[in-house]
Fold this protein.
Amino acid sequence: MTAPRTRAGRPRDADATVKVLNATLELLDDRGVAALRIDDIARVSGVAKTTIYRRWTSLTALVVAAMESALGPRAIPETGDVEADLLALTRLVHQSISRTPFIRALPLISVELMQHPGLAQQYRARIIDPVREQAIRLVRAGMKQGRFRPDTDPSLVVDAVISPVIYRRVILHEDLSLPDLLAVGEMILRSIRT
Amino acid sequence: MTAPRTRAGRPRDADATVKVLNATLELLDDRGVAALRIDDIARVSGVAKTTIYRRWTSLTALVVAAMESALGPRAIPETGDVEADLLALTRLVHQSISRTPFIRALPLISVELMQHPGLAQQYRARIIDPVREQAIRLVRAGMKQGRFRPDTDPSLVVDAVISPVIYRRVILHEDLSLPDLLAVGEMILRSIRT
């Protein structure tokens, strides 16, 4: 009797999956998206090309999966206290960005990804939107509860909190500390509270 | 008697300057920083390499000068009303970013520039800091006047206002409209007013 196939395949496949994702991240970090080749991923990971193609339908799917694995899970269980939930989500995003060894390369990879239409769409749908949409829903819930001003633009609020992390890294080549990110969040909250 | 030499040189040189800067921007837009070659700039602009080297000491200096010319002047005369001045500066930055024909390429160029240490330093010193430092000074003046809370972090405030423009373009591939940018500015001002 064999173990049931999971999404990541059998145990041996799960091991190969980690190797391939890590090799992909290493190569992305080294050379960027444009120079990424399946042959190099196979060589660096020690996993056969046929195995890689069986697990991921395209290089695009593999790149997005590698980014997802680098960032880790980025969703929080909601408690009903929208401010506490928004704070928890902000902390989680900061943690997921700063704990990856690819923190310095991530913005460049993101910018490069956005130049490839197929990748941009999947990156947006799988890396950005899940977290961004949860945050936007929380702001909307706060407006319905009368905690936030009715003239609040939920997506603008969410983007205003997260964007200094990107700006500091991409443009200023500095990291935004967690206290500074929370200070931005507090500024924005202070301005939208009723 | 000859006309006095200006910073851009004689009229014939001024013409060549514009041609070289435009060719540089065109090539940056087309191929990015890494693939930029003086030979191509000479070919596209129709200006001799020796003339280009006489005017700019390095490719780095030329790239930064091209970015400066694309963005145009970005400083405002200060009136003493810090909120009005900050608003004017915000409008000017938005205008200078959106009027360039290279708006879509600028973030990628910026990110690429930041990968080249020499360029990064000049880009920061000549493109980013003049505007950012003026804005930071204005926030500090507002704090001294007692208009802004004493616990305000001036650079964080300035970065929080401008960063959604970068985030929307680089990560979301959308433009932040002037009304949306002003709404972010108003949110931040509302939260730091005493």
Residues 1-9 of chain A have pLDDT under 50 and may be disordered. Chain A is about 70% helix and 0% strand. Chain A touches chain B at residues 107-108, 110-111, 114-115, 120, 124, 128, 153, 156-157, 159-160, 162-164, 166-168, 170-173, 180, 183-184, 187-188, 190-192 (CB under 8 Å).
